[in-house]
Amino acid sequence: MLRFCSLRSASTSKSFTSPLGRSYVTAHKKDQTAEAPKKDDKQTASKSKDDVEVKDTPSAPKKNLRDKFHIKKDGSIDVEFATNPFTTYKLEEGPSQTVSTSKDEMLSFFREMSVMRKMETSMVSLYQQKLIRGFLHLYNGQEAVVVGMESAIKRDDHVITAYRDHCHYLGRGGKVVDVFAELMGKRTGCSKGKGGSMHLYKADANFHGGNGIVGAQVPVGAGLALAAQVLGSGQISVSFYGDGAANQGQIFEAYNMAALWKLPALFVCENNRYGMGTSAGRAAKDTRYYAKGHYIPGLKVDGMNVFAVKKAFEFAADYARSGKGPMVLEMETYRYMGHSMSDPGLTYRSRDEVNAVKAEKDPIDRIKLYLIDNQIATQDELKAIEGEIRKEVEEAVKQAQDAEVPPLEDLYADVYVDKPYYVRAVEMQDSVSVK
């Protein structure tokens, strides 16, 4: 197995203090391996995503960079992006610079992302208490990708992802208690306690997991798109993978088949900047993940803005569903935690960098700010929602802890077709006959 060393890149930094007294360090890391934009790339002028600036309000975009909200008499809301959140590749035109929403949808965005954040924060404590064992890959910071996507596609569309799957499961309509039960190995878990963190499934919502082999879910996603095409169901397939998997050969094979057959497939790279201990620029010669489909159109999206994600998926889903073929999307996002719980996440990046991203771009703080600034909801209303979420998650943890573990016989269920059979254990008295 080839192993990569994680090296610190050269950087220049300076400290500053926010108006509220918070201290931060700005850092611009120079990525020598990242490719410059090519002639097929289109975007309005913007600065590097690695630049961290002083903002007038912590945890919020600067006022002149905040999206504009136009609230109509009928209650509908048009959101106008302050800066272009999209870069296109081999597309005549990209998504428009406005997206429609409503008060109810904005509140649901806030609630859904907050539930995801609180659920995963609780997982850290449960893991430290050894109530959750094994692998645990957290999604903190990336919630806008799932929530924005689910607001734009249909519930019967197919979704498949890698092992950072807890929030994808919730996005497909799963329950918090089912996630906790699965992570604790309980029979009431969404995979009956047999899958654990990396293998959450929801068959009734066409959520196909939760896959532990890096990149292996992408060819399966292409197969789901092929099935939809053959059956004429009108469904699309959305396959998620990370920047660390983006150079896997099987992904390019899936691209090739999808392009040849014009499959209704969306390939989505969640670029959270770091693989397992290595920055994107040190692992990929070309970090324009949205352009890696070569002959497939691509779209890069601000994955920290739930409205940009919604608009991007509306655009891409319409494209794929209309018979034009696949599209590659890159969601520029950021994970606050390490690659997994075994990774502190600070050996290849600084704590100041993490804190700066939280202060600048956090997707939950952004939607919270927009709700309050545009007088769509009050601070007290949002605090009440947060209180409800806290109780909901705490109750889910208690229910999962109290649930029963699978009986010994379940070890062999769904393994053998024919019964009866006999399974010899290490100790004779532990052997089992299943009739």
Q: How many domain modules?
A: 2
Query: What gap, in angstroms, lies between the N and C termini?
Result: 43 Å
Order of helices and strands: EEEEEEEHHEHHHEHEHEHEHHHEE
CATH class of the largest domain equals: Alpha Beta
Which CATH architecture of the largest domain is right?
A: 3-Layer(aba) Sandwich
Average pLDDT works out at: 88
- The best one-word shape is globular
Percent helix range: 25-40%
* CATH topology annotation of the largest domain: Rossmann fold
Count of helix runs:
11
Radius of gyration (Å): 22 Å
Briefly note the structural class of the backbone. Answer: alpha/beta
Described by strand count, sense and barrel closure, the largest sheet is:
7 strands, mixed
Lateral arrangement of strands in the main beta sheet: 3-6-11-12-10-9-8
Beta-strand content:
15-25%
At the fourth level of CATH, the homologous superfamily of the largest domain is Thiamin diphosphate (ThDP)-binding fold, Pyr/PP domains
Q: Give the total of beta strands.
A: 14
| pLDDT < 50 runs, ≥5 residues | 1-36, 44-58
Detailed description of the structure:
The protein has helices at 103-128, 143-150, 166-171, 176-183, 217-231, 249-260, 280-283, 306-321, 351-361, 363-373, 379-402, and strands at residues 11-17, 23-29, 41-42, 68-71, 76-80, 86-89, 98-102, 158-160, 237-242, 265-271, 298-302, 327-332, 421-423, 432-434. The protein is of the alpha/beta class and 435 residues long. It folds into two domains: 11-402, 3-Layer(aba) Sandwich (Rossmann fold); 409-435, no CATH class. The strands form four sheets. The protein has a seven-stranded mixed beta sheet, sandwiched between helices. The protein has a three-stranded antiparallel beta sheet with strand order 4-5-7. Strand 11, helix 8 and strand 12 form a beta-alpha-beta unit. Helix 2 (143-150) packs across helix 8, helix 4 packs across helix 11 and helix 5 (217-231) runs parallel beside helix 6. The radius of gyration is 22 Å and the shape is globular. The model is unreliable at 1-36 and 44-58 (pLDDT under 50).
